[in-house]
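Subject: design request, 743 residues
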């Protein structure tokens, strides 16, 4: 009996320690945990109970070594979860959630590519300390204890029962959106579990085929077919982390207007504040709500889970003859967008992964101006009406990666006495949104003169992720509605009627259809009727959302619509118009001519992707196509196929077209380390290049594989790389000839 009591007492004490570790790392100090325990003892007790359940399970082991290693692993895991919560709270204003497991690859890319100040050394120190302690336990501890299966069963029971009790209703607040506030009041683990329980409770609907069909028929009967005089182009702009000057002015003593054009334009058309799902993050959730007319809370983070085919805004407009395209000059893999945008019915999705040209940056990311230029190009290039969804990146956080006062001559447009770091973050952000305002002014000016009727719906995805410390110094709360209000407007290059309309993110798509005179889809019409009645939910909306996201999509069958888009093309349609060829020494080099020369491509020769597009001069049958690869060389898109009987036939048909030979002197090359030197200027600027010396063709290699004489390399900028010994050996022979194909 004494041994059993002692084991239970140790488990209880260890559970307190586990709770202190997780919540302490998440909140930044043990003192913060103790204050929370005194202010919310019930919630602290719930966190302790969950930790106790995990601890008691370890008593199933008889080996003391196994128990200690189990305890160390749980403690290390709690420390890591706590640190993840701390950094998510700092940069995204929300704790770690269970759905984050679907975003692990995105998280790694985000951390590596963005300027987040993460103490990697702290993580390594903690991990090393736990690993060494675990090893010591394995070598030192030898004792065995009696197994405690009954106590382990009690622990398992706690872990089965307590998670179901973690609800926002139990905490006395069902405001699901304020996750940071929930995490501080109820605890990190409690909040993560409550999010899942909230999602499940929302989707407990009476789901039958008959119920869905009856519901859809009722909505369809209330819908009037749309008959606009003329269909307009529709441009939907998600302006990353945008805030207006009017939003910031209550907390900043401004010396100038930050967004004068936006503020003025908003007064001339429909505009207002839009309630978005998350504070300081959650772009994909706002995006999903706007495009689908559904609430992201149904699936916690729908994009991360992967969407089924949906009849969303792009599909609705495609059914009316529109071409639906999306533009995002950043990596397209985030939030599984290549899958999700196809599932929602887009025709094309162009990203930084799909183009060869460099876009001009504003700060760290491609500018709004570049995004708007691409929209105008899309409008001019397509004969049909366009629906263009633009995801900008210019204003993405963090904002401490540079000092724009030094880099761009930016001003500090406020007189507040903030800390140096906060001053830098805020002045950088203010400069960025001013650049956004200027780009918007130029874009709207172009559309005013554009001959086709066009509607622009502009919205911010969330408040800027300035960080907890910055908001604290500003005195601005991010809890409650204040953390979830983002500006929007709907403008036309025809007539505009000023109107102040506040709405939810999932209601904006219906508003866009209404503004275009195209609101006759029963589901989106119901969404608009809810907004007009001031209602935020209905049984019909829940049922049809469940049917679309998780059910058998009976409503789509009833409507006779086909969701998704099998003709979806990443980067746009790839058209291989021809192939230029050049005989260089003993090989024929190939350079594809694409209808869109800006597209990324790798040439596939008889089914094999090649880095060096060449074949022997006596090569036989050729089957050629261009493939658009991702970073793992997996195909995102591909062109049509061209075939030739031989390399000689290809040479004859191309006439050695567009081939230029340059002479590169072998002196004044720049040393790059490891015995490698680089040409003093970019030379290999064509699509394919070959290097010969004295008529001998050298082998191209990736730079990391450049190891022996008779090889060369090139980079994306067109610089040529050789080994230093090659210069010495070849200097007496004079010069190298670089043959550039495709110019």
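Subject: RE: design request

Done. Sequence follows.
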């Amino acid at each position: 009996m004494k041994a059993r009591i002692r084991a239970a007492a140790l488990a209880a004490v260890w559970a307190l320690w586990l709770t202190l570790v997780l919540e302490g790392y998440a909140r930044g100090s043990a003192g913060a945990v103790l204050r929370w325990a005194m202010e919310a003892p019930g919630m602290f007790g719930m966190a302790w109970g969950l930790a106790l359940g995990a601890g008691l399970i370890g008593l199933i082991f008889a080996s003391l070594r196994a128990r200690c290693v189990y305890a160390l692993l749980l403690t290390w895991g709690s420390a890591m979860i706590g640190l993840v919560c701390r950094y998510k709270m700092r940069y995204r204003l929300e704790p770690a959630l269970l759905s984050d497991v679907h975003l692990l690859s995105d998280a790694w890319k985000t951390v590596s590519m963005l300027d987040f100040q993460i103490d990697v050394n702290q993580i390594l120190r903690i991990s090393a300390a736990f690993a060494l302690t675990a090893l010591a336990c394995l070598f030192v501890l030898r004792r065995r204890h009696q197994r405690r299966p009954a106590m382990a069963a009690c622990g398992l029971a706690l872990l089965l029962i307590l998670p179901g009790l973690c609800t926002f209703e139990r905490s006395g607040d069902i405001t699901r959106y304020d996750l940071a506030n929930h995490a501080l009041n109820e605890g990190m683990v409690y909040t993560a579990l409550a999010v899942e329980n909230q999602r499940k409770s929302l989707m407990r609907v009476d789901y039958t085929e008959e119920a869905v069909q009856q519901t859809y028929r009722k909505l369809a009967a209330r819908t009037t077919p749309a008959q606009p005089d003329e269909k307009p182009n529709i441009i939907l702009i998600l302006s990353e982390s945008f805030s207006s000057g009017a939003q910031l002015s209550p907390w900043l003593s401004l010396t100038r207007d930050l967004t004068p054009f936006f503020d003025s334009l908003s007064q001339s058309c429909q505009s207002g504040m839009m309630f978005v799902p998350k504070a300081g993050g959650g772009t994909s959730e706002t995006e999903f709500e706007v495009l689908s007319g559904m609430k992201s809370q149904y699936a916690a983070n729908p994009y991360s889970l992967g969407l089924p085919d949906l009849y969303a805004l792009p599909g609705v407009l495609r059914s009316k003859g529109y071409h639906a395209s999306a533009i995002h000059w950043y990596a397209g893999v985030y939030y599984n967008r290549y899958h999700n945008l196809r599932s929602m019915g887009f025709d094309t999705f162009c990203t930084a992964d799909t183009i060869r040209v460099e876009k001009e940056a504003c700060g760290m990311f491609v500018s709004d101006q570049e995004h708007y230029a691409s929209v105008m190009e899309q409008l001019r290039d397509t004969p049909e009406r366009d629906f263009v969804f633009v995801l900008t990146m210019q204003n993405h956080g963090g904002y401490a990666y540079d000092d724009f006062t030094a880099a761009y001559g930016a001003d500090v447009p406020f007189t507040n006495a903030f800390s140096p770091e906060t001053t830098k973050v805020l002045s950088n952000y203010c400069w960025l949104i001013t650049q956004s305002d200027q780009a918007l002014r130029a874009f709207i000016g172009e559309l005013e003169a554009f001959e086709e009727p066009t509607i622009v719906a502009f919205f911010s995805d969330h408040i800027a992720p300035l960080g907890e410390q910055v908001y604290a110094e500003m005195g601005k709360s991010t809890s409650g509605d204040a953390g979830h209000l983002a500006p929007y407007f709907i403008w036309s290059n025809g007539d505009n009627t000023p109107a102040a309309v506040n709405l939810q993110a999932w209601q904006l798509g219906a508003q866009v259809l209404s503004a275009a005179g195209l609101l006759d889809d029963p589901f989106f019409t119901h969404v608009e009727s809810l907004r007009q009645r001031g209602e935020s939910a209905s049984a019909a909306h829940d049922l049809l959302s469940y049917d679309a996201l998780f059910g058998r999509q009976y409503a789509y069958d009833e409507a006779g619509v086909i969701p998704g888009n099998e003709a979806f093309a990443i980067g746009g349609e790839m058209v291989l118009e021809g192939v230029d060829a050049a005989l260089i020494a003993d090989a024929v080099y190939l350079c594809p001519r694409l209808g869109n020369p800006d597209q990324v491509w790798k040439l596939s020769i008889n089914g094999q992707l090649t880095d060096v597009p060449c074949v022997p001069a006596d090569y036989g049958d050729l089957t050629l196509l261009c493939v658009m690869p991702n970073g793992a060389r997996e195909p995102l898109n591909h062109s049509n196929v061209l075939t030739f009987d031989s390399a000689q036939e290809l040479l004859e048909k191309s006439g050695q077209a567009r081939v230029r030979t340059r002479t590169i002197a072998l002196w004044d090359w720049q040393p790059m380390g490891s015995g490698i030197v680089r040409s003093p200027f970019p030379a290999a600027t064509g699509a394919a290049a070959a290097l010969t010396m004295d008529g001998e063709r050298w082998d191209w290699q990736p730079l990391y594989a450049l190891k022996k004489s008779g090889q060369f390399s090139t980079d994306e900028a067109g610089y040529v790389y050789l080994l230093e010994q090659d210069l010495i050996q070849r200097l007496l022979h004079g010069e190298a000839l670089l043959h550039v194909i495709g110019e």
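The longest strand covers residues 576-584.
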